[in-house]
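ugh ok fine here u go
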Amino acid sequence: MQLEQMEEVRAELEGFSLLSGSEVDILEDGSLDLPDSILRELDVVILSVHSKFNLSREKQTTRILRALDNPYITFLAHPTGRLLLTRDPYEVDMERVLEGIRARGCFVECNLNPHRLDLDDRYLARAKALGVPVVLNCDGHSVTDFQHHDDGIMQARRAGLEAGDVVNTATITELRNRLRATKR
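structure:
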């Protein structure tokens, strides 16, 4: 199993931190595509909607809120599903979603990929106002994707985010503590 291999690598890499994680799909009914038996073993569990973008605003919102009820969730990624110039955001009550994230002690993503930049600066400012911690994430699917950070960082700055609002500006010890705190 990959988690066992990661433990072996962790033991070999003195002074280097390796976190385990997975991006899980939110199914139409709000359940997840991985079982809790796996999710509980991970350091980071990222929620994402990858299908059924045309649900009504109420159904999409309920779907996401139900997924956030899972006790092993860390953060919600690309929360509106938009792809700039390609796909409009799906209908969702972002205020309710952000309030749900806050109530559950999770984080929300600011996706730095230039094709997404999701959340926009208005919702990032609202997340800050609600006290919802933000994760800046390049949505890297290859090494070249790690270069996509400048536009997203500018978006975070436009929203008024500061280092203390951004989870992944913390030291590794602080980060691990914050990640553990999301598990309920």
